[in-house]
Amino acid sequence: MHFIVFLIIGGIAGALAGRVVSGHGYGIFMDVVVGIIGALIGGWLLSTVLGISGGGLIISFIAAFVGAVILLWIVRLVTGNRARA
């Protein structure tokens, strides 16, 4: 059950982060993938850098969103405009 919630939170966070960072996103599939990877990055940042472990649904969503924004920023920095779908 937690894995499904993780996928849903990551997908929503990736879709929102795609709109915030690039203004158009990279397509629904890539936004979901970026959101899921961003959720992993955000969770790692919270636990390692800030020392926060656990948290509720809102904290998980914020961590996923921040991680997805960071990941999208890095992708845009590396690829420039070539990553547009």
Molecular structure report:
It contains 3 helices and no strands. With 85 residues, the chain is mostly helical. The chain has one domain. It is globular, with a radius of gyration of 12 Å. The termini are far apart. The model has no long low-confidence stretch (mean pLDDT 76).
Provide a short characterization of the protein structure:
With about 80 residues, this protein is mostly helical. It has one domain (about 1-75).
What characteristics describe this protein?
single chain, 85 residues, mainly alpha, globular
Q: Could you say which structural class the secondary elements and strand pairing correspond to?
A: mainly alpha
The N- to C-terminal Cα distance equals: 32 Å
Overall strand count: 0
The quaternary organization reads as single chain
Detail the poorly predicted runs.
none
Mean pLDDT: 76
Principal-axes geometry comes out as globular
Chain-wise SSE layout:
Elements: H1 2-22, H2 28-49, H3 57-79
Helix pairs in contact: 1-2, 1-3, 2-3
